[in-house]
Design goal:
Largest sheet: none
Structural class: mainly alpha
CATH superfamily of the largest domain: Winged helix-like DNA-binding domain superfamily/Winged helix DNA-binding domain
Radius of gyration: 20 Å
Number of domains: 2
Number of strands: 0
CATH topology of the largest domain: Arc Repressor Mutant, subunit A
CATH architecture of the largest domain: Orthogonal Bundle
Distance between the termini: 48 Å
Number of helices: 5
Length: 99
């Protein structure tokens, strides 16, 4: 399950950099949870072809993340915002406790 979430996040950030065909196949595999056989039948290609394409797309998305680091930066910013929110809430409670 964790792998599917990771793949989905990479696709969310970098999916627009893929071709239309790559996007369609990948969405069927990751989001629509179709089997390789179902996807192969739908696009008129072999099951092995779908497998190779999905593997290649995973590699492409991982390389984008390695070079650009957008998912990592997003996670760091989200964590910092959550930490600030927590500190703000604690400070507010501290001030209200004084009053």
């Amino acid at each position: 399950m964790e792998d599917i979430i990771k793949l989905g996040r990479l696709y969310d950030f970098y999916g627009e950099l893929l071709t239309d065909h790559q996007k369609e196949v990948y969405e069927d595999f990751v989001y629509n949870d179709l089997s390789l056989s179902e996807i192969a039948e739908s696009y008129g290609i072999s099951r092995q072809g779908v497998h190779d394409l999905v593997k290649r797309i995973n590699t492409i998305l991982a390389k984008y993340e390695e070079k650009l680091g957008l998912v990592s930066r997003f996670d760091n910013i989200r964590d910092a915002v959550n930490a600030l929110d927590k500190l703000s809430e604690e400070e507010k409670n501290s001030i209200l406790g004084i009053l």
